[in-house]
Design goal:
Blueprint: H1 4-15, E1 21-29, E2 37-47, E3 50-60, H2 73-83, E4 93-97, E5 107-111, E6 116-117, H3 128-145, H4 150-153, H5 164-179, H6 185-196, E7 206-208, E8 217-220, E9 223-227, E10 234-236, H7 239-249, H8 264-275, H9 282-305, H10 312-318, H11 320-331, H12 347-358
Antiparallel strand pairs: 1-2, 2-3, 3-5, 4-5, 6-8, 7-10, 8-9
Helix pairs in contact: 3-8, 5-9, 6-9, 6-11, 7-9, 9-10, 9-11
Length: about 350
């Protein structure tokens, strides 16, 4: 049986028919994130007896069932292609293999962009003014996403921008109902309160990243060099991205753990001045995203519970469902005591996963 690098090289030779020879070097898995699997590699192609080297990243569809289903790699590839030449800094999307015949699952390959992703680590060695500039650059890139011309890029085809808030509520409600084992009084109360208090959406329909967390931005010095992870991207209300960013900015990890990092209000003031978008109903958008994040944590817990995953990150995140639900309820002024229901994996599964972590 051919090794993975040999299978990749054979497939890449069909994408580079002018090359005399194609080989793959340095194939290695990246170990961050909880969605798709990613690998770095170097493509070495020979032209006229000379080798050309190209550093790339391979994004592989996660094994189903995954945290985010249905998982649509061709859609992500199309989004990256559509963003080429815009003000949004994205890796160049190179090739898509959507049949699963080469590696057993679909994948695409994109250029490898220089920069550092501060997912959990603080940019401890960076000067204070560099960290301030990193925060500003992140806000500017989010503003660039919300300023993309949907028609000229063809990205208006990825979703209907109308009724975006209802689509979000309905999607995550369906996901909650799909995976829950029994009644979830607190989470269901949060959903009902969100529906009852839903504001009028922001009047401008924009591209929405869907997962605008600090860990999805790479930095070269003080500037964002690339924006990653377009799995949850849609078209609709840009303020949904702001609510998500607000929740994640509260967590003292990555950039936000640096003492010079902008406060959330300072960050959003820079976003407003750059984007021309005025923020409104911030509590409701935070509550919406607390609900979304709580459901994602619940899905992870049920993947653990059903034996589909032993991922330690999902195990830790499972404890977030209750905390995020309470946060969302608090944002909407609801302080009545409510039972969580079964939001954690069963005790025996928790013990099994914890035992594996020790091995």
């Amino acid at each position: 049986m051919m090794r993975m690098d040999e299978r990749l090289a054979a497939w890449l030779s069909t994408q580079l028919p002018e090359a005399e020879d194609v080989r793959v070097e340095g194939l290695d898995r990246l170990k961050f994130g909880m969605s798709a699997e990613m690998m770095v590699l170097t493509i070495v192609s020979r032209h006229g007896g000379q080798d050309t080297r190209r550093d790339v990243v391979l994004r592989l569809r996660p094994k189903p069932p995954a945290l985010l289903e249905p998982y649509d790699l061709p859609r992500q590839f199309a989004i990256l292609r559509g963003l080429e030449g815009t003000g949004v800094r994205v890796p160049r999307a190179l090739w898509l293999e959507d049949s699963g015949d080469v590696l057993g699952r679909p994948f695409f390959i994109m250029e490898r962009v220089g920069g550092i992703v501060y997912e959990m680590e603080s940019p401890a060695d960076a000067a204070d003014d560099t960290v301030v500039r990193m925060c500003e650059s992140l806000a500017e890139q989010l503003a660039a996403i919300h300023s993309v011309d949907l028609a000229s890029t063809g990205l208006d085809a990825i979703d209907d921008g109308s009724e975006h808030l209802d689509r979000e509520l309905n999607h995550w409600a369906n996901e909650m109902n799909r995976v829950k084992r029994d009644s979830l009084p607190a989470l269901e109360r949060l959903l009902a309160a969100l529906r009852a208090s839903k504001p009028a959406p922001f009047p401008r329909v924009t591209l929405v990243h869907g997962d605008a967390k600090p860990g999805n931005f790479a930095f070269n010095g003080g500037e964002v060099s690339a924006v990653f992870d377009w799995e949850m991207t849609t078209v609709g209300d840009p303020l949904t991205d702001i609510g998500w960013l607000e929740l994640l900015w509260m967590q003292p990890v990555g950039i936000t753990s640096h003492p010079a990092a902008l406060s959330i209000d300072g960050l959003l003031a820079h976003y407003e001045s750059t984007s021309g978008i005025s923020l409104q109903n911030r509590s409701w958008y935070r509550a919406l995203n607390a609900y979304k994040m709580a459901v994602i944590c619940l899905i992870g817990a049920m993947l653990i519970d059903d034996g589909h995953s032993d991922d330690q990150k999902l195990m830790i995140a499972a404890y977030g469902t209750s905390l995020l639900t309470q946060l969302g309820l608090s944002e909407l002024g609801i302080d009545e005591p409510l039972d969580d229901g079964p939001v954690l994996p069963r005790e025996e599964r928790i013990r099994e996963v914890q035992a594996q972590a020790v091995l």
